[in-house]
Specification:
about 55% helix, 3-stranded antiparallel beta sheet, elongated, about 100 residues
Length: about 100
């Protein structure tokens, strides 16, 4: 059980389309139209996934006229990466620990 890692955030990022959106937004700030073009997803489906990412705090919006731009919050991704790094370090330190069988 991974208690030290944000499992809710992992669940949010485990969806292939959401992970694709995050990957695209890591490179540049994009509007919904751009994301539809890049992913091939339907606008309604994409909007639902963006809502999940927004509510999880992974992306933030920036209104620009009649468009809404989305940008990745790198601090959230970095925090998750740090949690995984801590988990890996713990596993390295415990590599020789073996619980005896009864």
């Amino acid at each position: 059980m991974m208690t030290s890692v944000d499992t809710d955030l992992i669940r949010v990022l485990s969806d292939p389309l959401r992970l694709q959106i995050v990957t695209l937004l890591a490179k540049e700030t994009l509007c919904t139209t751009h994301l539809v073009e890049e992913t091939g997803a339907r606008q309604t489906n994409l909007s639902n996934h963006l809502k999940v990412l927004r509510e999880a705090g992974v992306v933030e919006t920036e209104p620009c006229g009649r468009y809404t731009y989305y940008k990745l919050r790198p601090d959230v991704i970095a925090q998750l990466a740090d949690q995984f790094a801590d988990l890996a370090e713990s596993a390295r330190a415990a590599a020789e620990n073996k619980r005896a069988c009864p």
